[in-house]
Amino acid sequence: MSATRATRRGVQAVLLDAAGTLITTARPVGESYAACAQRFGAALEPAALMAGFRTQFPAMPPMAFPLSPHDSLLEQERDWWRTLVRRVVAQAGGGIDDFEGFFDALFHYFAQAQAWRLYPEVAEVLRTLRGEGYALAVVSNFDSRLLGILEGLGLAPFLDAVVYSTAAGAAKPDERIFASALVRLHVTAAQALHVGDGLAADFHGARAAGLQALLLQRPGAEEAAAAAHCIRSLAQLPDRLAARR
């Protein structure tokens, strides 16, 4: 623990969601699905695929496999995503003869850093928080591809831990994924603040686990929590943390 963290009262660690908070897809999901489908001879509308994703993703079970052996993790991750993609394609009209080839290509594409981009303020904010001595971790309902994505986007040097749901065996809002991050950072729940864009998974989940929390509501997001608990950009985070000291 740095001298700054050891002497600071209050928040010593900041936990951050990944997708929607630090990173987003480089282009809309529907467009990526449609472009990949075209490579396999299928003409599917990006808007229909996007609508399918927005319907089917929330209907999926948690992206966590607590009773599965760790050596089968990648297979379990692929099965989870295969089920989702199959449902999305079916809702959009289907028609991909080589579905397995299509799925493999899509799964590989979203493992690449170039399939994602950082929100503009992210690198500077993490650099600032790191310089101020905060421990930093990503806590995300994601799979093992997240490690390579964050590294490829240049975020790995800022992070003390990356905790993702498939490896943790629990997905937000389950308090166990937050507890896993706290153990990795050697802090208590009362010493940690979690920031994410999901009202149930991030804000209420973190608070139920005993952490402080802020809801990130980027422009266009529906109002979901009191202003005192919201930020519109991660650029507001350092000042919010300073106010809690």
General description of the model:
This protein is an alpha/beta fold and 245 residues long. The protein has two domains: 145 residues, Rossmann fold (3-Layer(aba) Sandwich), CATH 3.40.50; 86 residues, DNA polymerase, domain 1, CATH 1.10.150.720. Helices cover 45% and strands 13% of the residues. The protein contains eleven helices and eight strands. A six-stranded parallel β-sheet has the order 5-4-1-6-7-8, with helices on both faces. It has a two-stranded antiparallel ribbon with strand order 2-3.
Average of pLDDT: 93
N-to-C SSE string, H for helix and E for strand: HEEHHHHEHEHEHHEHEEH
Percent strand equals 5-15%
Low-confidence runs: none
Arrangement of strands in the largest sheet: 5-4-1-6-7-8
The top-level CATH class of the largest domain is: Alpha Beta
Q: Tally the structural domains.
A: 2
Number of strands: 8
Describe the largest sheet: 6 strands, parallel
Termini distance?
Answer: 18 Å
Structural class: alpha/beta
Count of individual helical segments: 11
User: Would you give the CATH topology of the largest domain?
Assistant: Rossmann fold
The second-level CATH architecture of the largest domain is: 3-Layer(aba) Sandwich
Q: Residue share in helices?
A: 40-55%
- The CATH H-level homologous superfamily of the largest domain: HAD superfamily/HAD-like
Helix-strand blueprint:
Layout: H1 3-7, E1 13-16, E2 23-25, H2 29-39, H3 46-59, H4 73-91, H5 99-109, E3 116-118, H6 122-131, E4 135-140, H7 145-152, E5 161-164, H8 165-168, H9 175-185, E6 192-196, H10 199-208, E7 212-216, E8 230-231, H11 237-243
Parallel strand pairs: 1-4, 1-6, 4-5, 6-7, 7-8
Antiparallel strand pairs: 2-3
Helix pairs in contact: 2-3, 3-4
